[in-house]
Amino acid sequence: MKKNHFLHKHQKTLAPLLSLVLIILITASVTPGFLSIQVVDGHLFGSLVDILHRGTPTALVALGMAVVIGTRGIDLSVGAVIAISGAVTAVLTVNTDWPVWLVIMCALGVGMLCGLWNGILVSVFSIQPIVATLILMVAGRGIAQMITEGQIVTFHSEVLDAIGNGYFLAFPIRVWIAIGMIILTLVVMRKTALGLFIEAVGANVRASRLVGIEARLLVMSAYVFSGLCAALSGIILAADIRGADANNAGLWLELDAILAVVLAGASLAGGRIYLLLTIVGVLIIQTLTTAILTSGLPAQYNLVVKATIILAVLLIQSPKTRQWVSGFFLKKQKAVKGSTTP
Amino acid sequence: MINERNLPILATLLVFILLYGYGVYEYKGFRDTLVFSNLLTDNAFLIITAIGMTFVILSGGIDLSVGSMIAFVGVLMAYLISTAGIHPLFAIAIALLVGVAFGTLMGIIIAFFEIQAFIVTLAGMFLFRGLAYLINLDAVPISHPFITGLSDVYLPLPGRGGLTFIAMAMLVLLIIGILIARRTRFGMSVYALGGDSHSAALLGVPVKKTVIKIYALSGFYSAMSGVIFAIYTGSAYPLAAVGVELDAIAAVVIGGTLLTGGVGYVFGTFLGGMIQGIIQTLITFDGSLNSWWTKLAVGGLLLFFILLQKGIVMWVKKRSAA
Predict the structure, then answer these.
(1) Does residue B1 fall inside a structural domain?
(2) Of the candidates A11, A6, A18, A9, which has an alpha carbon nearest to the alpha carbon of residue A281?
(3) Could you report the per-residue pLDDT of A154-188, keeping only the tens digit for each?
(4) Which chain A residues are Cβ-neighbours of B118 within 8 angstroms?
(5) Mutate to test the interface with A, among B65, B114, B119 (most CBs of A within 10 A)
(6) A144 to chain B, minimum CA–CA distance in Å?
(7) Domain of B146: which CATH number?
(8) Which DSSP letter does residue A39 get?
(9) Domains of chain A, first to last
(10) Model ipTM value
(11) A252: phi > 0 → left, psi -120 to 50 → alpha, else beta; which?
C-alpha cells in the first residue's frame, strides 16, 4: 500500500525518468558498446558521455525556456539569440585584442539585451509571447549575419577551445558549465521568493497582482534569463566549431528546448515547472538523437521519431484523455458491480 | 468607412503604395509591368500559404506546419510522378488529399484534446519534414510534359509583363479565399470564433467542427502552395521552404489581421505577401544591400504593425469607455 502511495505521488517524476532509462536500455541492447565508458588520459569517453557533451547547449536553452514557460510565455527567439551571441564572440575574438572574459561578457550581455527586448514587448506592450519573440526570431538571424557580414567567421582562442571541447575532472568543461547553471537556477527558483513569484505569475496573473507581485518586472527578468542562457549556449556552440555560422547555429534548438520542457510535464499554460525533469527531457531527446545516429539509420529519422513522441506525450498529458480514460474505467467498474450484485 | 476595423488594412495599403511608389520613382526598370507580374509569380506560394494562415489566425490559432507541408507535398509529388509513374494531375490530387487529411488530423487533436494549436502544429512541422526526408533525401527534378506545359501557360499583359499559370492560380485561390471568408457560414463562424469563442459557442457556432475545418483548409492551402512551389521550381527538395511559416505569419500580420483573431481581411494578406516581395525586389534593385536586410526590414515591419494594432485596440477601448 505504502509503495502504491509513493508511486501515485511521484507519478509525474517517474514517467520521464523511466522513459529515459527505457530508451537507454533499448539502445544498449541494439547497439553493442553503448554503455561502455573508457578512461583515456583521465578523460571519460563513451556514448553516454557524448550524450552529456552534445546535450549541453539544449540543456542551457531548455533551462531558460522552462522559466519563461513558467510565466505562461514562450521564447521562440533562442535560436536567433544563439546565432547573435556566437557572431559577437567570433567577431570580437578576431577583430579586437580584448581579453576572453570581456568577449564572453559582451556576448552574454548582447543575449540579455535580446531577452530584455522580448521581455519589454511581452510585459510592457502585452504582445502575445509567441508573436513578440517571433519578431526577433525573424530579424535575429539577419542581425547575426550583419555582425559577421554574411560570412562564417572562424577564430582561434585557447580559452574558447577549452569551453568547446576541453575536459575538467574527467568530464567535458561545458558539462560543468551546464551543471553550474542548473544549480544556480535551482537555487534561485526553489530557495528564493523570486522563483515562487515567477510561478505565481504564470499560474494566475491577476491573483498574483492582488497579493502585490510586480508581474511586469518578473516576466521581463524571465526573458532576460532565457536570453542569457541562449547566449551561453551560443558561445559554447561557436567555441565547439571554432566559428560562427549565422545561418545554422542553433537552428531548430528552440523546438528541442520546448519539447524538453513539455516532456518534463510542464503545462504550456504556465504555472509549475520542473527544472530537473526538464534536464531529463533534454537527455531523452539527446539519447534518441544519438541512438538513431549510432544505430545506422539516416539522421533524418530523428524528426519523425521526435514528432511522434511529442504527439504521444501531448495526447497522454491532455486532461481530456484522462477524463475519457477514467470515464471508461468508471463505466467498467459500474458494469462489474452491477453484475455481481443482482 | 474609416473605422478602427479598417485602419490596419488601410495602413497596409499605404505601406504597399509607398514602397511601390518609391520603387517607381527611384528605378526606371520598376515602372514596367514585368516587375509587378514577377511579384505575383515569385510570391505566389507564400501568398497561397498565407491565405490559409489567415483563417487560422482569424480564429485565434496558429499553424506552424505549413513550411514543412510545402516541402513534403513537393517531395511526394516528385515521388508519385517520377518513381511511381502516376500522371501529374492524379499526383496533385493525391498530394492535396494528403494535405487536407493531415490538416484535419491536427484540427481534430486541437479541437477534441484541447491542446494548444501552437504545439500540435509544431509537432506537425517536425513530422512533415521528417516524412519528406523518408521519401527522399536529395533535390530531384520534376520533369513531365504536363508540368512543363503548365509553366509555359502565359497571358501577356501590356508592357513586358504577363501572368503565368502560377500567378493565375494564386489569384483564383485568393478570390476563393475571400469568398469563403466573406460569403459562407463557415467564414462567419471563423470570425466569431476569433472574436470570442465562448460567446460564439453560446450563439450556436459549432466550435469543434469549425476548428477542424479551419486546419483542414490551412492544410489544403499549404498543400496547394506545395504544388505551386513544385511547378515554380520544377524540382522537389526536402529542405525547401524552411521558415516559410514565419513569412506567412508575417504576411498575415502585415496584412492587417489582428493576431488575437476576429478582425482582418484575406485581401490584406495578399498585400502583406506582396509587400514582402517588394522589399526583396527593392533590395535586389539597389544591388549594394545584402539579403539579410530583407529579414531586418520584414522584422521591423512586423513590429510596426503589431504596435499599430496594439495602439488601435487601446484607443478603441479608451473611446468606448469614455
Answers:
(1) no
(2) A18
(3) 888 888 888 878 888 778 888 899 999 999 999 98
(4) 74, 130, 268
(5) B119
(6) 9
(7) 1.10.3470
(8) E
(9) 38-296 (1.10.3470)
(10) 0.74
(11) left
